Amino acid sequence: MSEDLHVPHDDDDDEARFAEAGRLLFARGSDFVMGAAKREQLPPMGAPEIAFAGRSNVGKSSLVNALTGRRTLAKVSNTPGRTQQVNFFTVGKDLTLVDMPGYGFAQAPQADVRAWTRLVLDYLGARQNLARVYVLIDARHGIKNTDEPVLDMLDRVAVSYQVVLTKADALKDDEAAARTAEVAAAVARRPAAFPQVLLTSSRTGAGIPALRAAVARLLAERASAH
Ligand code: GDP
Questions:
Q1: Does pTM surpass 0.70?
Q2: Which residue, 43, 64, 68, 77, is the most exposed by fewest CB within 10 angstroms?
Q3: 55 lines ligand 1 (CB under 6 A)
Q4: Backbone angles phi, psi at 49, to 5 degrees
């Protein structure tokens, strides 16, 4: 075998390449496609999908808006009690962003919890084009009791997921670093979790380019595996 075939791997180059790819990916513009409240309403599978899940108030709408650069794409502060929907957004032609209904309202009626679980399982079970679920966790609180069953469910259905910490701006740098390490240690034991934990703030924009880069890398890896 010729020596020339061995291309040296340059991590810095790789990172810069995916940072730019991520920026371009999300610069293409986003639009709301539709919301699905039950399995029959799920849109046909098309472009690869990434889904965002998290406790209500974790900052999911703000993060989706920061990622796509649109201020009103996902409505900030979805009202509790509103019909639960899985919402679909285009990101250019090559990516669909999926906003899953928030979970963990205090005192949510059991019927609501059951409806949420059914809808989410219907969605997760039906999407071969789902590349990864990003599970948002508030950096101030870390993984809470209400998050555990959701992580358990993702492990059980074996859907690849990655934890994204939100509201990093609310912590000092050393506290945020400690929280990131703590959450990374907790997900290391989970079979379907991606080991790296991302730290973001929609308010300051910190970590948003890194999240876009992670999505671009995921799409590239998926494309080369298919
Ligand atoms: P959702 O219910 O998960 O969609 O959360 P929202 O995006 O509606 O945000 C819930 C609350 O958290 C709102 O009061 C936001 O202003 C606040 N919030 C969202 N993102 C951030 C952030 O990056 N930093 C801080 N400090 N607060 C945030």
A1: yes
A2: 77
A3: no
A4: -115, 145
Q: How confident is the model at residue 3 (pLDDT cuts 50, 70, 90)?
A: very low
Percent of the chain that is helix, strand, coil (3-state, to 5): 40, 20, 40
Name the closest-CA residue to atom 22, ligand 1: 167
Centre of ligand 1 from the C-alpha of residue 167, in Å: 7
Least Cα distance to 78 among 56, 48, 109 occurs for: 56
Which atom number of ligand 1 is nearest to the Cα of residue 200? Answer: 23
Angle in degrees, CA 88, 106, 133, rounded to 5: 30
| CA 190/CA 8 separation, integer angstroms | 32
The predicted model gives 172-195 an average pLDDT of 98
Residue type, 148: E
User: Does the CB atom of residue 38 touch ligand 1 within 6 A?
Assistant: no
Average pLDDT over residues 9-36: 90
In this structure, what token pair is assigned to residue 71? 């201020």
CATH superfamily of the 3-225 domain: P-loop containing nucleotide triphosphate hydrolases (3.40.50.300)
Amino acid 13: pLDDT:
86
Q: What is the mean pLDDT of residues 141-148?
A: 96
CB of 96 closer than 8 Å to CB of 46: yes
Confidence of residue 75 (pLDDT cuts 50, 70, 90): low
